[in-house]
Design goal:
Order of helices and strands: EEEHEEHEEEE
Structural class: mainly beta
CATH superfamily: TonB
Shape: elongated
CATH architecture: 2-Layer Sandwich
């Protein structure tokens, strides 16, 4: 699961007739794995991996602009869901329609809204996701953890953008 922290930002007030956008992270479905049976033994591993998800660099957030062609046609509100892939260096390498977050766009403008989202999101930068391999070490009466290895890794998550042509910003997240 990706965590995206979005704080307050300063930007110019919307111009009349330009529209605004907001976004939220689409959470994955809860894990449906089978719980352990009462007879199952819990064994503590001596090596384990810890995962830290990619985190957005706030100064890189560029919100998509309402597409000009759709605005001129007074197309109305739209919602665009995208699947975003972040590489091990923290760059966006893929933005495509999401299967988790549906897109609802005015007829004839789906590609315009998707293109606006892609142009904006490809500018975002992230602290890369990291995997840290940790070893538990027991010495006489105490146990401690020692980091064996840390490496950056790819990450992916889904976002949903809401476009409002009236200039009102809807709550994101």
């Amino acid at each position: 699961m990706a965590v995206l922290h979005v704080g307050a930002c300063r930007h110019a007030p919307p111009q009349v007739g330009t529209g605004t956008t907001s976004f939220r992270i689409v959470e994955p479905a809860p894990d449906q794995s089978t719980p352990l049976s009462p007879e199952a033994k819990v064994v503590q591993a001596t090596n384990r991996e810890q995962y830290r998800d990619a985190e957005i660099i706030q100064s890189s957030v560029v919100m998509p602009a309402y597409p000009v062609r759709a605005l001129e046609a007074r197309a109305g509100a739209a919602q665009v869901g995208v699947h975003v892939v972040i590489d091990a260096s923290g760059r966006v390498v893929d933005v495509r329609p999401s299967l988790r977050a549906p897109s609802i766009t005015p007829p004839g403008f789906a590609n315009d809204f998707l293109a606006a989202v892609e142009v904006a999101v490809r500018q975002w930068r992230f602290q890369p996701a990291r995997i840290r391999t940790v070893e538990s070490v027991t010495r006489e009466e105490f146990t401690y953890s020692r980091v064996l290895r840390m490496e950056n890794t790819d990450a992916a998550f889904d976002l949903s953008f809401t476009f409002t042509p009236a200039g009102k910003v809807e709550a994101g997240m």
